[in-house]
Each structure stands twice: as structure tokens, then as C-alpha cells.
Write a structure and sequence with these properties.
This protein is an all-alpha fold. The protein has helices at 3-14, 23-28, 32-42, 47-59, 64-70. It has one domain (3-70).
Length: 71
């Protein structure tokens, strides 16, 4: 498992356990998709977003954030 894939997998699986309420959470919370986009910007690569797309296709189901947007 590449480092990129490990980080993307960690971001996608840990978001259910994060605080989303409260002042700091409202100010600084990023969705997993936003985090992956920021990682791509910081490291000047598209590897994180490519790994996220491959994880979605490997699992056969869309990411929970994508499922919310589809509804």
C-alpha cells in the first residue's frame, strides 16, 4: 500500500468520528474531499485524488460524502 493510498484511506475512514459541532469545528472542519484537495495543492500533485478515485472504484461504492451529494 502506497503512502498516498494509506493517507487517503485514513481520511475517508476517520471522518465519522470527528467533531463537527462546536465553534472550532464549524470554523475549521474540512470534509474528506476538501482534505484530499488540499493535500494535492500542498504537495503539488494529483496522486491523492487519483488514489481516492481508485479506492472508490475498488470498493464498488461511492464515498459517504459523494453519496450525500447524490441524494
Amino acid at each position: 500500500m502506497s503512502a498516498f493510498r494509506y493517507i487517503v484511506n485514513f481520511i475517508q475512514t476517520s471522518h465519522n468520528y470527528e467533531m463537527k459541532r462546536g465553534l472550532l469545528a464549524k470554523m475549521f472542519y474540512l470534509t474528506p474531499a476538501e482534505r484530499i484537495q488540499r493535500l494535492d495543492e500542498v504537495f503539488d500533485t494529483t496522486q491523492f485524488s487519483e488514489e481516492a478515485l481508485s479506492l472508490v472504484s475498488d470498493n464498488g461504492s461511492a464515498h459517504p460524502e459523494a453519496q450525500k451529494e447524490q441524494r
